[in-house]
Automatic annotation (TrEMBL):
This is GntR family transcriptional regulator. It comes from Mycolicibacterium hodleri. Pfam families: FCD (PF07729), GntR (PF00392). The keyword DNA-binding applies. Signal peptide: none annotated.
Length: 238
């Protein structure tokens, strides 16, 4: 009897490494590959239908993002556990980085293409909140914040893309999300996780509106306010 693989076969293509990394990142976000799961490279290569070379490169990307760590003399990788202290550390740094990125993006202004992408990602986040789709939501959420970093036109700000990807994915990991839902409900029975997502959506829109209006101070303040809210929520994620 053949056991269905948690990672479906991938089509070969020019961006195979990115495809492999994205598929594995999605599996970590939706809980198919939970914290502590060990991934033997030989088995993974067979499941994905790829050679060891692109797989190693994809795993290196995820290790750089902080989602995996190598064990067993680099023959195996393990999905890391991201706890509330880790989230706090990441988002304290992101408050500075995201604020600066939004400020610089407002100074430069969005191109028509960037403005269109921002609206598309706002729509994606809204549509993936109800019904809730953690993978789709995380993809849009990550792209949204990475897009602002790119629009800053500052290479040092852009170099924090791995931090953005990891800290975003950590919020959507099932175990972290379950802790947050239970903790928030215990603190305030009238507060739901859906309300948290809705409030986040309002804040995302405020950041974009300030950037489009070419108001650097307002954009920075909106971005910092958004991250500060996540910092306040960090203790609930574990």
């Amino acid at each position: 009897m053949t056991t269905e693989s948690p990672v479906s076969s991938l089509q070969r293509g020019p961006r195979l490494v990115d495809e492999v990394a994205a598929r594995l990142r999605d599996r970590i976000t939706d809980g198919t590959l939970s914290a502590g799961t060990r991934l033997p490279q030989v088995v993974l290569a067979e499941q994905l239908g790829v050679s060891r070379t692109p797989l190693r490169e994809a795993l290196r990307l995820l290790e750089n993002d902080g989602l995996l760590k190598t064990v067993d003399n680099n023959r195996t990788v393990e999905v890391v556990t991201v706890g509330p202290d880790d989230l706090l550390d990441m988002y304290q740094l992101r408050e500075v980085i995201d604020g600066l990125a939004a400020k610089l993006a407002a100074q430069h202004g969005f191109s028509a293409e960037e403005a269109s992408l921002a609206q598309h990602l706002l729509n994606e986040m809204a549509e993936s909140s109800d019904p809730y789709d953690p993978v789709r939501r995380n993809r849009a959420h990550t792209q949204f914040h990475e897009m602002i970093a790119v629009a800053s036109h500052n290479t040092k700000v852009q170099s924090f893309a791995p931090l953005i990807r990891t800290s975003s994915a950590a919020l959507y990991m099932p175990l972290n999300r379950a802790h947050a839902e239970a903790s928030l409900l215990a603190e305030d029975p009238a507060k739901s996780y859906k309300q948290i997502l809705d409030e986040s959506q309002v804040q995302h829109r405020e950041i974009i509106e300030a950037i489009l209006a070419r108001e650097p101070a307002a954009a920075e303040a909106a971005a910092r306010h958004h991250i500060q809210r996540t910092i306040r929520l960090a203790p609930h994620f574990g």
